[in-house]
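sry for the spam today, last one i promise. struct tokens for design, 134 residues
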């Protein structure tokens, strides 16, 4: 049980240090969290041995992020931007799929490798970027 507390403490300390540093350098807080994760994981090796424990922390973080996005989402604004969302979202999917296919062909990947790689690359959330921007 104390292992959970130690890992949580390491995560919190890394976040408290990395996010203000990232903000000071003019970067976003998400990049600060990413740098903190890289530093405490592969570089220092403080966490990362028990993948199931880390997976529980990651799942909780994703749930909290989705909750916050849902709290900030304005249904009326989303409905008002439906044409732009569908048009730009569809354009993003088509262009990224084409670029992913071109890169995969250039790398010489087989079709079974190209499809998951290409689909995974453009499953970014354009509506979240457009709707929740302030």
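last one done:
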């Amino acid at each position: 049980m104390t292992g959970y507390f130690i890992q949580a403490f390491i995560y919190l300390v890394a976040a408290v240090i990395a996010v203000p540093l990232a903000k000071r350098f003019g970067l976003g807080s998400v990049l600060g969290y990413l740098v903190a994760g890289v530093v405490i994981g592969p570089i220092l090796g403080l966490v990362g041995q028990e993948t199931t424990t880390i997976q529980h922390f990651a799942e909780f973080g994703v749930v909290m992020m989705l909750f916050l996005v849902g709290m900030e989402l304005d249904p009326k604004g989303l409905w008002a931007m439906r044409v732009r969302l569908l048009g730009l979202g569809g354009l993003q999917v088509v262009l990224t799929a084409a670029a992913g296919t071109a890169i995969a062909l250039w790398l010489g990947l087989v079709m079974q490798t190209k499809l998951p790689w290409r689909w995974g690359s453009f499953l970014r959330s354009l509506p979240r970027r457009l709707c929740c921007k302030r």
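Confidence is low (pLDDT under 50) at residues 124-130. ok im logging off now
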